[in-house]
Design brief:
Number of helices: 11
Number of strands: 8
Radius of gyration: 38 Å
CATH architecture of one domain: Up-down Bundle
CATH class of one domain: Mainly Alpha
CATH topology of one domain: Outer membrane efflux proteins (OEP)
Structural class: alpha+beta
Helix content: 55-70%
CATH superfamily of one domain: Outer membrane efflux proteins (OEP)
Order of helices and strands: HEHHEEEEHHEHHEEHHHH
Distance between the termini: 85 Å
Shape: elongated
Strand content: 5-15%
Length: 464
C-alpha cells in the first residue's frame, strides 16, 4: 500500500510538472504585446466604430435642416436672359424683322409666409436636439457593446485555458489509471471511465475554442482591431444610484433615448403648425430690372424696373394642404406614444441591469465558496481513492466539480462587468467624458454653429 501511495504521489507530481511545462510553452510561444485595458478598447471604439461615425454623419445632416428653414427669411435672386428673331409681314407695310434680346434680374423678399418660416425653424431646431440625443444613445450602445465584447474575449480566453489544463490533468489521470490496471489494482471499467471523461473534455475544449473565435470576431467588428494582451476588466464603481427606484428615476430623467423622443414630439408639433401655415395668406416684396434690345420695330432698346408687393391668398388647391395637416397630426400622435415606449424600454433596461449586477455579485460569492469547497473535496476524494475507499469515477467527478466552479467564477466575473456598464447605460451615464477615456470628444454642436447661418457654399465644414 505504501508503494502504491508513493506511485500515486509521483503521478500527481508528474501531472503538475507537465501542466507547468505546457503553460510555459504557451507563454513562450505567445508574442509579447502591450497590455490593452478596457478603457483603451473603449477609446478605440469611440474613435473609429463605423456605426458611431455613421450616426455622427446623420446628426450633421440633420443640422442642415435649420439652415434650410432659415432660408425662408432670405431673399431669392434669379436672372433671366433670352434672344431670338421675330418676322412680321403686314399689308400694307411689308415685311419687317427684329432680333429681340432681354436680360433681367428678379429679387423676391418674403415678408410673411403664414408663420411657416418661424415654425419650420423651431421644427428643425427640435429635430437637431433629437438627433444629438439619438447620437448620445448610439454612443452609449457602442460603448456598452465594446465593453461586452472585451469582457467576452477575456472570459472565453480564460475558459479555454481552464479546458486545456483540464485536458492535461485528465491525460495524467488516464495514464495513472492504465498503470494501476496493468498491475491489477483497478478494472477495465475504471480505464474506460477515464478515457470517456478525457474525450468529453476534448469536446468541451473544441466548443470553448469556437466560442473564443466568435468573441474575437465580434471584438474586431466593434473595436476595430485584433484583441491583444487583454487585462482582466473591472466593473464600474462610479456614482451608481443608491437604490432601484432612484435608478429608474434617473434613467427616466436623463436617458438620451427618452430625451430624443421628447424632442422628436416637439419637432412634430411644429410640423403641424407648418402644415397649417400653408392655408394662410403670404406676402412678399418683388423687384425686377430688365433690359430689352430691339423689342419692337419702333423701339431700339428699353430698360424696365418695377417693385411690387405680392399678396397670395390660397382658396382651394385640391385638398392636399388639408391632408398634410391631418398627416402631421397623426405623426405627432405617433411621436407622443414613442415617448411612452422609450420610457418603458429604459425602465426595463434599468431593472435588467440592476438585477443582473446583484445576481453577478451573488454568483461570484457562490463560485468562490464552491471552488474552496471543491478543492478540499477533491483532495479528500484522492486520498480516499488511494486506500480503495473511492473509485476512479469519484475522482473524475470531483475534478469536474472543481473545474465547473472555476468556469462559473469566470462567467460571473464577466457578468458583473457587463452588468455594471449596462446599468450606467440604462440610467444615461455611459459617456466617454464620464468614463475618462483618452479621446478627443466629438461635439455635435460645433457643426450646428458652422452651418446654421451659412448663406453660400457647397463644401461641408470638414471639406467634403
Amino acid at each position: 500500500m505504501q508503494d502504491q501511495t508513493t506511485q500515486d504521489q509521483k503521478s500527481r507530481s508528474g501531472a503538475v510538472l507537465t501542466a507547468c511545462l505546457v503553460l510555459a510553452a504557451l507563454l513562450l510561444a505567445t508574442p509579447k504585446a502591450a497590455a490593452e485595458t478596457l478603457n483603451s478598447a473603449l477609446a478605440a471604439a469611440y474613435a473609429s466604430n463605423p456605426t458611431l461615425n455613421a450616426a455622427r454623419a446623420e446628426a450633421r445632416a440633420v443640422d442642415e435642416g435649420v439652415a434650410q428653414a432659415l432660408s425662408g427669411r432670405r431673399p431669392s435672386v434669379t436672372g433671366e436672359a433670352s434672344i431670338g428673331a421675330r418676322h412680321n409681314d403686314t399689308v400694307p407695310g411689308g415685311a419687317t424683322s427684329t432680333y429681340p434680346g432681354e436680360v433681367g434680374v428678379t429679387v423676391n423678399q418674403p415678408l410673411f409666409r403664414g408663420y411657416q418660416t418661424i415654425n419650420s425653424t423651431k421644427q428643425a431646431e427640435a429635430a437637431v436636439l433629437a438627433a444629438r440625443n439619438s447620437l448620445r444613445n448610439t454612443e452609449q450602445n457602442i460603448l456598452l457593446q465594446a465593453a461586452q465584447a472585451y469582457a467576452d474575449v477575456v472570459r472565453d480566453t480564460a475558459i479555454v485555458q481552464l479546458r486545456r489544463n483540464n485536458i492535461t490533468v485528465l491525460n495524467e489521470q488516464l495514464r495513472a489509471t492504465e498503470d494501476r490496471f496493468s498491475v491489477g489494482e483497478v478494472t477495465r471499467t475504471d480505464v474506460a471511465q477515464a478515457r470517456a471523461r478525457l474525450s468529453a473534455a476534448q469536446s468541451q475544449l473544441n466548443s470553448a475554442e469556437a466560442q473564443l473565435l466568435t468573441s474575437r470576431a465580434t471584438y474586431i467588428q466593434i473595436i476595430g482591431r485584433e484583441p491583444g494582451n487583454l487585462q482582466a476588466p473591472r466593473p464600474l464603481v462610479g456614482p451608481l444610484p443608491a437604490n432601484l427606484q432612484q435608478a429608474i428615476a434617473t434613467g427616466r430623467r436623463e436617458h438620451p433615448a427618452i430625451l430624443a423622443a421628447r424632442y422628436s414630439e416637439e419637432s412634430a408639433a411644429f410640423a403641424v403648425r407648418v402644415a397649417e401655415g400653408a392655408l394662410l395668406p403670404s406676402l412678399s416684396l418683388q423687384g425686377s430690372v430688365a433690359y430689352n434690345s430691339d423689342p419692337a420695330i419702333t423701339i431700339q432698346e428699353s430698360v424696365t424696373a418695377q417693385i411690387l408687393g405680392v399678396l397670395t391668398v390660397p382658396i382651394y388647391q385640391g385638398g392636399g394642404e388639408y391632408s398634410r395637416v391631418r398627416q402631421a397630426k397623426q405623426t405627432r400622435t405617433q411621436r407622443m406614444l414613442e415617448i411612452d415606449v422609450a420610457r418603458a424600454q429604459v425602465q426595463q433596461a434599468v431593472l435588467s441591469a440592476w438585477g443582473g449586477l446583484q445576481a453577478a455579485n451573488a454568483s461570484i460569492r457562490s463560485a468562490q465558496a464552491q471552488i474552496e469547497a471543491s478543492s478540499v473535496a477533491l483532495e479528500g476524494v484522492r486520498e480516499e481513492a488511494r486506500v480503495g475507499q473511492r473509485t476512479t469515477l469519484d475522482v473524475l467527478d470531483a475534478e469536474q466539480e472543481l473545474l465547473d466552479a472555476r468556469v462559473n467564477l469566470v462567467i460571473a466575473e464577466r457578468d458583473r462587468v457587463v452588468a455594471s456598464y449596462s446599468l450606467f447605460a440604462a440610467v444615461g451615464k455611459l459617456q466617454a467624458t464620464r468614463l475618462g477615456l483618452a479621446v478627443r470628444e466629438y461635439k455635435p454642436e460645433v457643426n450646428t454653429r458652422q452651418v446654421r447661418d451659412k448663406w453660400f457654399g457647397l463644401r461641408t465644414p470638414d471639406g467634403q
